[in-house]
Amino acid sequence: MSEAGNDSPWTATVLTLFPAMFPGPLGQSLAGRALQAGKWRLDALDIRDFARDKHRSVDDTPFGGGAGMVMRPDVLDRAIRAARRPGYKLIYLSPRGRLLTQDTVIALSAEPGVTLICGRFEGVDERVLQAHGAEEMSVGDYVLSGGEPAAMVLIDACVRLLPGVMGNAETSAEESFTDGLLEYPHYTRPALWRDADGREWAAPDILVSGHHEKVKSWRRAEAERLTRERRPDLWMKYLCGTAVEAAVGK
Ligand code: SAH
Predict the structure, then answer these.
(1) Ligand 1 pocket, residue 165 CB under 6 Å
(2) Domain range holding 244?
(3) Which has the least CB within 10 A, 59, 102, 188, 241?
């Protein structure tokens, strides 16, 4: 926090029809402790508060027909205008959006915060997204019933990267995706574990040996093996990146 007066923590403003869902899981454990400690802020705004008619309606039937309801542009527009802050990205959680990746999470956590729109029903009127230049982001190729769980995923991933949120013990330097690879497997005591069926499972000798250099190269090899086996898409990217680094002599 600088002394120039910009002392507000990273802030997630969430536009939702279900504000009572927040903080929910974000109020527990790492994110919850950080929230309590004022290391980030959460404002959940009820979109319904911006409805003007006596039934406080927020949705209507889709033009052109078809199943379901669509969130009205006028109501959502008022909510966005009330929530928007200069310098904050406006993001609509949507299965049509760009897939959320760790690179995006790192970039978002370096901003002052985010403003998130959670859709419900069939989604929201396209015009209000265009009018505000909302960016669409997806948490995966599947359909949720609402944007709230997706918003929680995005916020959780950002918050753990904020300064002072993860302790040394929870450092993120070697995590999955940080260097383009999935993470190596973990083991803890006992070194020889006997399961309930009487089978014995030994932790890898190299790890137990405590030989720092050998541990490092074993972990690297395992990370590469897992990435190659499970995520050929990431593996190809990783190989290309390594080839480019070699070419430019990095
Ligand atoms: N009819 C839409 C799905 C609507 S689901 C379609 O086929 O694309 C209702 C809401 O859930 C959406 O408005 C969006 O905000 C949220 N949502 C659903 N799946 C999501 C995902 N994979 N990522 C982010 N948000 C999602």
Answers:
(1) no
(2) 176-249
(3) 188
